[in-house]
Amino acid sequence: MQAVATIQIVADIFRARRDDGRPALYFEERCWSGAELHAACATRAAFLQDNRRDGPFHVGILMDNVPEHLFWIGACALSGATYVALNCTRKGADLARDIAHTECQFVICEEAYRNDLPAQPGGLATYRLFVADDPGDSASLLPYIDHVPPTNPATPDERFCLMFTSGTSGAPKAVIYSNQRVIRNSVMLVQGRSLTPQDVTYVPMPLFHSSGLIMGLLPPLIAGGSAVLRRRFSASGFLADVRRYGITTFCYVGKPLAYILATDARTTIVKTACVSPMAAKLPTRTSRHSRGVSAAR
Fold it and tell me: What is the DSSP string of 1-69?
């Protein structure tokens, strides 16, 4: 595990894995090493830097929990851009409002979400659309392979991402997360869960939510371990994934855990971390439950 003291900004997490041949990411049948993860992020970082314009360097990402989502998050970190976590459940005018509210220069999406994006006002492009699984857009990354990212793309006090509130009392608001805030919270989970390079962390929560990104995805990367992404959460598929990938730890919120515990499953042992307003004070333990996983409360 890289020394925690050396992690000052989110880019440091990806740079530390640059020459790491150990697994860093699993998705379905694929596995990426730390070095392959860094290379994919660096290529996209170069594209963003070369195509940015004046104004806020904000990059909206509209994707499920797929590898490209992580690659573009890493690209934002390595290029100094602000990652805007667009909520995949919002569409049309609501989604347009979120994009305009956060002044996105780029919107990176999957083909499945292209039609959820409304036409840009007056036919004028206010942001550049990049469809990650479109062959033409993918080809535009080729000139940027083997790019070396800048040494210091951001400072700890500069913002890393904008994440939206739930919008229960009006339109969702973009919450500012600095690099320092993200690192502090993620390192807390590494230390609280005693994560090691041998840990395999399951990330079923959406990456546009802080539980998915800050408490699920980044801690295993900091620890030198690996993350397992699943496109969307599935209670019935949870234990199958645990056994398939050898998962040792996962991060959750209450409702999905209730769904998991309601399934008919044999005993499995994993480390858990509870996400709640009191997460920093909650103990972590290896636990056993007759129907799956019990929570550290």
Answer: ---GGG--SHHHHHHTTTT--SEEEEETTEEEEHHHHHHHHHHHHHHHHHH--SS--EEEEE--S-HHH
**Alpha helices (H) along 193-284:** 210-212, 218-223, 238-245, 254-261
How many whole angstroms separate alpha carbon 134 and alpha carbon 125?
A: 19
Distance of CA 52 to the CA centre of its chain: 22
DSSP 80: T
Question: In the beta sheet, which residues pair with residue 159?
Answer: 178
Give tens-digit pLDDT for 20-70. 999 999 999 999 999 999 999 999 999 999 999 999 999 999 999 999 999
CB atoms within 10 A of CB 115: 10
- Separation of alpha carbons 150 and 137, rounded Å: 24
Residue showing tokens 């492009």: 125
